[in-house]
Each structure stands twice: as C-alpha cells, then as structure tokens.
C-alpha cells in the first residue's frame, strides 16, 4: 500500500503559523527605526501610485471635446503623470534599500542562533540526526525568514495599504456602489485564489513526492544493477517505477488542470468586475453625474488593484512553505539540551588532577544499560588503561568524562568536584583527547593543528607537530602547513590524521589526557615512535588510555578490564598476567596473532 501524502491544514497548524509569525518580531525590533522608515516609504509609494489614476482622470477630462469648447494640451498634468510614475519607483526602491539591512541582518542573526543552539544540543541528538537534515535546518531557517519578511514587506503590506487608500478615495468621491463592486470583486478573487491554491497544493505535494520516489527507484535499480541481473528482475523494476510514474502523471495532470482553472477563474472574476464597473460608470456618465475621466479612473483603479493580486496564489503558497520551514526551525529551538550547566555551576578548579568514577551506572537508552557500578580512581600524574572487548563500554567512559552525557547513577569527579557542579566549558578546557576516529575540518593543516589553541604561535604549532612525528611529513608537502586536508581529512591517511590529533592534544596542554585507541591506525614502527611521544606528553599528566592493543599499555600504572560494562579485573600488567583471567587470555591471543603476522611477513620476504 502506498503512503498517503494528502496535504491537510488544521487549526493547530494555523495557531502554529501565527506563533511563528510572532517569532519574527524580535528580529524586526532591532532595526525598528529602519522598519518604520521603510513603512513610510511604502505608504508614500502607494499614495503616489494612487495619484496616477487621478492624474489620468484629469488628463482625460481636459481632453474631453464634449465638455470643453477649446482643447488645450494639459502639459502640467502630463508632466505630473510622469513625475508620479517616477516617484512611485523612487519610494519603492528606497523601501527596498532601507529594508535590506533588516532582512539580511535577521537572516544572519537567525543562522547564528540556530548554529549556537545546535552546538548546545546533546551528542545524542547529533548521533540520531542526519547531517543533511541539520544542514537543511540551517538553510531553511534563514531562507524561510527571508521569504516571510520579503513577502510581508513587499507583497502583503503594499496590497493592504493600497486597498485602504483606494477605499478612502472611492468612498470620498464616488457612490458606494463603486466601492461595493471593486471590493466585492477583490474578496471573491482572493477567496477563489486561496481555495484553489490549497487544493492545488495537495496535488503538488503528492506529485513532488511521487517524482522523488520514482527517481529513487530508478537510481536504486541502477546502483543494484548486478543484483537485478542475478535475479532477472528487469521487468519487475520497470513495472515498479512505471506504477509510481503513473501516480505522478495523474497528479501532474490534476495540478496543471487546477492551474488552468485558477487562471481562468481569476480572469473571469476580473472580467466580471470590470464589466460591472463599466456598466455603472457608463450609465452615470450618460446621465451627466460623472465625467469620462471618472470612468477611466475607477476602471484604472480596479485594474491597478488586481495587478498585485495576480501573484496572490504564488505568494500564498510560498508563505505557507516558509511557515512550514519556520515551524521546523521553531520545533528545533523547542528541543532543550540534554546536558546543561546547573544554575549554581562554578568553573572547575584543577589543583592535582585526580580522576575518580564512583559507582557509575549509565545507558544510552533506558532499556539498554552500558555501565554497571563502575568505580576506579586515577591518582594525579598516573596512567590508567582500560581494556576489553568491543561494546564493553570503554569509549563511554571518555564521553562521560567530557560530560557529553550525564550518568544515571553514581558520580564522576575531578579533584573531588562532581562534573555536574562545574561548567562544561571549564571542564573541557582541562581535558585533551586523541580519539580513535579523528575528523578534521576541510581546511589547512595549520588551521586543524591550531584549533586546539587558536592563539598559539607558528613555532609552538611546529613544535607540537615535531613531537607528534608529523613535522617532517608536513615539510615535505608542496604547500606545507597550508595544505588543505579535504572534507573530514580524507586527503590524509588514518595514521596522519591520528598524528594531527596527537599534536593538537600536545598543543592544548591539558591537565588530563585521554587516549582512545590513539595508535590504532599506525603501523608497528610508527606506533613505537608515537608511543614514545605519548609517554613524553603524558609525563606529570593524569592519563586515561582506552586500548585494544595490550602491548601499548604494559607500562600503565593500573589496568582496568571491562566486560559487558562491569569491572572484572584490575591491576598492573604483571599482576593481571599472574591472575590468569580475562586479561591473560587477551594477552595470549594477541601474542599469537602478532607471531602469525611476523611469520607471514618473513614468508613474504622469502
């Protein structure tokens, strides 16, 4: 069964739309002076525009041979007509110039606010949400705000002002029947346009979704070309795509038909309105109560009011789309950060650097606990290593230490201060990490290295790269430190990226260091050089090492063995081997694997 893509509008959505429109006010308030000046220019432009049919009436009356015995060229009125046209253009452009700063500043403010909010949201949010969706939130937020401000300032408000001025003119100078005909036509026009546009949106939404679905099905069948051939399902794929395209075809025809109905209906309403105006005006001209110029004026006024209404369907649709995008953004702002600083949080004061986990329980999901009653202490300046199988909870310890998540039970403390009682900024300032998967910015090596300490000198950055065994590699590159690493650092190998991470940890000079599989992407020779550098970096630092290769942590002051989120063994390398438990088994297995690799290398050389 195909999903139902019907577009529906509910009172709840309408309430959200008004709430989202109110959300624009703070962005307008910052430049309220400019907004008022722009509105002033808008009113002046419409006043001048209303003078155009009035001047045209004067020109026609002055050229009416039946009323005047001598016809003189109305030079002043003709010049005035041109001046009014010029004034309308001038005030309209001034309005645009004044409002440009408001519009683009609002886009800038909203983009920065959205980005700041996304940075505040928890790691869980970013792991569950696709990067493309976040990118669309940023793009749509600024675009929807720009669209709403643009249409409100340049489409909706001008029409409202012009209607009010036209109503005042008609009621002041002409019988009420003219006002009733003109505004009755406008009301019917607007009602008809909005009703048909809502109906069209239903078919347009379905058409767009079916088109995307058909494209996806066609592309999917081509990507899986070999699988299609293996099973001889070419006809199946064609029928599947054709069935979707049949639904798209029906929706496209209905969309085009509704567009033609909309255009014809709008033209019919204008034609009826103009005809009625002409009948009434012509009758009063024949009776002598109105001049020929009056007939021209009311007819021109009617057409002048309908010109902007020709775009009403497009404007209405774009505003609805923008409000929907704005609603997505408002809902994003309604998501509160999972991890927040306590109201009385204070900066972390690190005097010694003791790290302690006390009876910590934690799970990413309520029904799936990861850590069970984990307790350990890393004395100041000591190194503690955590080992265990994949999924044992090793990397979770680093995430809790950075307070990407809050523990569900127990406490994590640094120098006796609970992490939930200190500010996140001060906590992360004293911790450095070399992650297992180093992701770099699509910028230069220099930028990525300096990211740890943006105010560091070039000499300090080079010294950190030297310690990480990275400087010689960079110096050999044609662009040196100005080499662009590509998106996510794809132009570098895994080992080179890890060296960048190590150099950044060195440059940050943290009191607490975390090495999360810090040498996993290095060969044995490079690993030994990096381990020597890491030992030098870790001197006098409290260090937490998360490791898979046991050979890299035999010098640790304490080794913790995790199994299914529980501490099973604890001790030095020698003590754990003597216990002949899990650690000893892991050690024996890795030694066998290492011996097998060395044997394969020897056979390959021979």
Please give a structural write-up:
The protein is an alpha/beta fold. The protein has four domains: 1-173 and 317-338, ABC transporter transmembrane region fold (Up-down Bundle), CATH 1.20.1560.10; 175-289; 354-430 and 511-572, P-loop containing nucleotide triphosphate hydrolases (Rossmann fold, 3-Layer(aba) Sandwich), CATH 3.40.50; 440-509, P-loop containing nucleotide triphosphate hydrolases (Rossmann fold, 3-Layer(aba) Sandwich). 64% of the residues lie in helices and 9% in strands. The chain has helices at residues 11-22, 25-29, 32-62, 75-120, 123-128, 131-173, 176-223, 225-231, 234-287, 292-309, 312-334, 394-401, 424-429, 445-450, 458-467, 471-475, 494-508, 524-538, 573-579, 582-605, and strands at 355-362, 371-378, 383-388, 409-414, 417-418, 431-434, 512-516, 542-546, 558-563, 566-571. The strands form two sheets. A six-stranded mixed sheet has the order 6-7-8-3-9-10. α6 crosses α11 (312-334). It starts with 10 loop residues before the first helix and ends with a helix. The model is unreliable at 1-12 (pLDDT under 50).
């Amino acid at each position: 069964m195909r999903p139902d893509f019907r577009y529906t509008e509910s009172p709840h959505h309408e309430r959200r739309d008004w709430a989202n429109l109110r959300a624009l006010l703070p962005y307008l308030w910052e430049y309220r002076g400019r907004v008022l000046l722009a509105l002033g220019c808008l009113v002046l432009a419409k006043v001048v525009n209303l003078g155009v049919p009035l001047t045209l009436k004067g020109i026609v009356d002055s050229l009416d041979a039946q009323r005047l015995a001598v016809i003189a060229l109305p030079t002043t009125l003709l010049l005035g007509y041109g001046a009014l046209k010029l004034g309308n253009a001038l005030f309209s452009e001034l309005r645009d110039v004044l409002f440009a700063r408001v519009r683009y500043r609002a886009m800038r403010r909203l983009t920065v606010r959205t980005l700041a909010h996304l940075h505040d949201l928890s790691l869980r949010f970013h792991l569950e949400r696709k990067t493309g969706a976040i990118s669309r939130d940023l793009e749509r937020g600024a675009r929807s705000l720009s669209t709403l401000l643009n249409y409100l300032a340049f489409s909706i408000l001008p029409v409202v002002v012009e209607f009010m001025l036209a109503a005042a003119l008609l009621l002041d100078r002409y019988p009420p029947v003219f006002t009733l005909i003109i505004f009755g036509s406008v009301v019917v026009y607007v009602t008809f346009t909005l009703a048909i546009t809502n109906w069209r949106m239903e078919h347009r939404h379905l058409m767009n979704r079916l088109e995307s679905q058909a494209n996806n099905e066609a592309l999917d069948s081509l990507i899986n070309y070999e699988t299609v051939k293996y099973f001889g399902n070419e006809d199946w794929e064609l029928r599947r795509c054709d069935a979707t395209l049949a639904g798209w075809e029906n929706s496209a025809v209905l969309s085009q038909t509704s567009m033609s109905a909309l255009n014809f209906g709008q033209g019919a309403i204008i034609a009826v309105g103009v005809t009625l105006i002409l009948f009434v005006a012509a009758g009063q001209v024949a009776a002598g109560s109105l001049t020929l110029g009056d007939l021209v004026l009311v007819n021109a006024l009617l057409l002048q009011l309908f010109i902007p209404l020709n775009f009403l369907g497009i404007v209405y649709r774009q505003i609805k789309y923008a409000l929907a995008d704005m609603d997505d953004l408002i809902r994003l702002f309604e998501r509160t950060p999972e991890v927040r600083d306590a109201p009385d949080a204070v900066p972390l004061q690190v005097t010694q650097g003791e790290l302690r986990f006390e009876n910590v329980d934690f799970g990413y999901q309520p029904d799936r606990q990861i850590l069970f009653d984990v307790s350990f202490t890393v004395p100041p300046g000591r190194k503690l290593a955590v080992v265990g199988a994949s999924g044992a909870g090793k990397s979770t310890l680093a995430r809790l230490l950075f307070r990407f998540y809050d523990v569900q039970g127990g406490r994590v403390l640094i120098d006796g201060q609970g992490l939930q009682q200190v500010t996140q900024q001060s906590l992360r300032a004293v911790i450095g990490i070399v992650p297992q998967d180093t992701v770099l910015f699509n910028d230069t090596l220099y930028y990525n290295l300096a990211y740890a300490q943006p105010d560091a000198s070039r000499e300090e950055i080079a010294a950190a790269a030297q310690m990480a065994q990275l400087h010689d590699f960079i110096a050999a590159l044609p662009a040196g430190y100005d080499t662009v690493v590509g998106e996510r650092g794809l132009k570098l190998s895994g080992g080179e990226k890890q060296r960048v991470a190590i150099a950044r940890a060195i440059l940050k000079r943290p009191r607490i260091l975390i090495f999360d599989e810090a040498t996993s992407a290095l060969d044995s020779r490079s690993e030994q050089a990096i381990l020597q550098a890491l030992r030098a970096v870790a001197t006098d630092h409290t260090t937490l090492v998360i490791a898979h290769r046991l050979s890299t942590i035999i010098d640790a002051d304490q080794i913790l063995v995790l199994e299914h989120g529980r501490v099973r063994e604890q001790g030095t390398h020698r003590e754990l081997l003597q216990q002949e438990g899990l650690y000893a088994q892991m050690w024996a297995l890795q030694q066998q694997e290492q011996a097998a690799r060395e044997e394969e290398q020897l056979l390959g050389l021979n």
